[in-house]
Amino acid sequence: MFRLTLQKDSNVSYHEQLYQQIAASIRSGELSPHEQLPTVRELAAQLKINYNTVRSVYLRLQQEGMVDSRQGRGTIVSNVVNDPLMTRNPAHLALLAKETLHKIKAMGYSLDEFSRVLSAVVQEVNQFPVLFLRYTELELAEYLRLVQYHLPSAMVEGRTFEDFTERLEEDPSFLQEYKAIVTHPSASMKMRQIMPREAPPVVSLDFIPDPTTVIPAMEAYPRHTKVGLICATIRGAEGMIQDLHNAGINHLELRIIEANHPDVFDMIANCDVVYISKPGYMTRPHLLTLPKVKEYQEIPDYHGITKLRKIVTQ
Which UniProt keywords apply (predicted)? Predict the structure, then answer.
């Protein structure tokens, strides 16, 4: 297996260090076409880093055509080393730079504008990521997407609370990889208590009903309308009720249930309208196709995302 080393005291993130080393090994031919790479879990265990860091690096390599990942085959090196444009060659790099500058000029931008943007992008690529914590893998998948959408300049990785606490017990120094720890408000106090003093800041970030879609619809329903709320977990559904109450929705009869509960269809039948969260319909996608069922759209709360944005841009 080719050797990979990560510098913990470097200002360059683990993601960027790992990406650069694998990419260089592919371009130099040290990793041959069709050579099998370690699985995400194997490499994460070998380097003692977050599983999601390795996964995001593999995804980046795949998007750039350097590796090919397929079900049942794992991740293998693609045939890029036979393409002279993909090998490490200063002449090819100069040609690429000239082509890019010509495109920039053709679009009406000045070289000064491009230089400023390039400097900012390089800084973003090399920055430390933030670590996003949630209770389940389904919540992570959805809410990571929302955070990245509302904060595109941030590098965001995710862990479940269970995975995070286990890793913290094994090696608290892994926290040095991150610029901030982002958690649900209900877990913020506990996170601050269990983390060492030199840990990165903890940011409480909740997701609230979309004030442009969900809240106006809820406000328009007549008093005592029976509204069902479906989430992947009962804790998530209870959070939906709390968020609606915080938004001033108190005139409805709210009922909650887990997406996988055997009585979910009975609850839908007995309600006037039903809302299902993204983690809920990721659990049972067909529920959203039912006539009564609508998507419960959410956005990050303003105070949490603003605080996170300030930390990321420091």
Answer: DNA-binding, Transcription, Transcription regulation
Residue for token pair 């010509």: 102
HSE-up (13 A, CA, CB side) for residue 101: 9
CA-CA-CA-CA dihedral for 110, 116, 117, 119, to nearest 10: 140
The C-alpha atoms of residue 255 and residue 66 are separated, in whole angstroms, by 50
pTM: 0.56
How distant, in Å, are the alpha carbons of 205, 229, 239, 242 from that of 249?
Answer: 21, 13, 14, 10
What type of residue is 27?
A: R
22-59 residue pLDDT tens: 988 887 788 888 889 998 888 988 888 888 788 878 87
DSSP 287: G
Per the CB < 8 A criterion, the answer to whether 61 and 31 are in contact is no
**Which pLDDT band holds residue 249 (cuts at 50, 70, 90)?**
very high
Sign of torsion over alpha carbons 133, 135, 136, 139: negative
- Nearest-angstrom CA–CA distance, 175 and 3: 24
Are 280 and 232 a contacting pair, CB within 8 Å? yes
Residue whose tokens read 């000045």? 110
For residue 54, give both structure tokens.
């390795």
pLDDT digits (tens, 9 = 90+) for 153-182: 678 888 888 889 988 988 888 888 888 999
Measure the CA–CA gap between 259 and 274, rounded to whole angstroms. 12
Contact partners, residue 33, CB within 8 Å, separation at least 6? 77, 78, 79, 80, 81, 82
- Greatest CA separation for the chain: 72
Q: State the Cα–Cα distance between residues 239 and 208, nearest whole angstrom.
A: 9
